[in-house]
């Protein structure tokens, strides 16, 4: 019952939207772009056709309490686990920038050492009283010392600076990648949202067709029992009814799949959907899509990473303070050894380091990084070309989708007029059963096509917004 209520809610909104679009869409109201139909008062009108079904839907959907629209679905998409993972990556890369900047700070280290030195080891020997090993002349002694060292890299060959730039570029790339992921999820939500209405429109048309077939089946059964109709007509209607039931069951499954996908993408629970439309997108060709921005920053990151491999020396300033907590016994009596072990020492030094034998490996490493960078630049050029193609393609699809609404509406009007006339003739036995079934199928296929054209137009709006690099949320009606 809950699932039945969901698609009925959306059916109500869909039919209202169809009526509004039939009256307000500028493209379809243009006499030059509309196929004209001359109608009698009894002929087709979008409002009259949908009014009976609207009242039935309103009655059946009165218990739905948690209906959501497109705006609520996109807001809930912020809870998508994939998007949350991307946002956490952004935070991690931001912290990594601070770690790199901390490399400019001086280092301060404190350590403590304890030594116990042995003069000799006495043990098993072939000659009693003879030491196995002898270590010197100062006897066994202990020593303890504490050190405090301050050091600062005065010059690192610009490696630290390029490390910071690399991580900043990586951070910017992750921001763009997260935004692109968000727009992808928004697009998936919209695709499922309007696919739901596409499937629902087909479901509604199939149900109306099924009701029409059942009505005719009851009438033909009475005629057959009275000997006024053939078994062929009766069995054909039964076959048509069974086929409609099969199609309805299949379409219900598609509708339920759309609902489950929306809940999966948004982590949102709801029992009904309301149909909303996107604003008409602006035609823009000069916006960089976020996946291209992310790739550009990756190329910059590789460039800065390559610059960290250089042939410059490193220069380090250090200041080391040592306190001899316990001196060796031989150094406590004065003389030369006492001078070698002062209680307090402080050493300031400047150290320059140049790695001589690392040049070959460093050169190969730089070649590897450069080739990797060139590969990413080629990928970037490909993406930029792809974006240009996508913008032109989806702009054309948007134009075609808009014109298809006009054609589908004209087709629906003609199909309904034709079906009403043929149905009257069939009732009066002026046309055969085959012609009647053909008109019946054409009428409801045209209805489904018209509804699909409306939803496809909204979907193509979203496609153009996404592939042209614009923000989908900017085109949601407030």
Automatic annotation (TrEMBL):
The keyword Ion transport does not apply. GO terms for cellular component: cell outer membrane; efflux pump complex. Keywords: Cell outer membrane, Membrane, Transmembrane, Transmembrane beta strand, Transport. It comes from the Bacteria. SUPFAM superfamilies: Outer membrane efflux proteins (OEP). It is found in: Cell outer membrane. One of its GO terms (molecular function) is porin activity. InterPro entries: OMP_efflux (IPR003423), TolC-like (IPR051906). Its main location: membrane. Belongs to the outer membrane factor (OMF) (TC 1.B.17) family. This is Probable outer membrane component of multidrug efflux pump. It comes from Helicobacter fennelliae MRY12-0050. The lineage of its organism: Bacteria, Pseudomonadati, Campylobacterota, Epsilonproteobacteria, Campylobacterales.
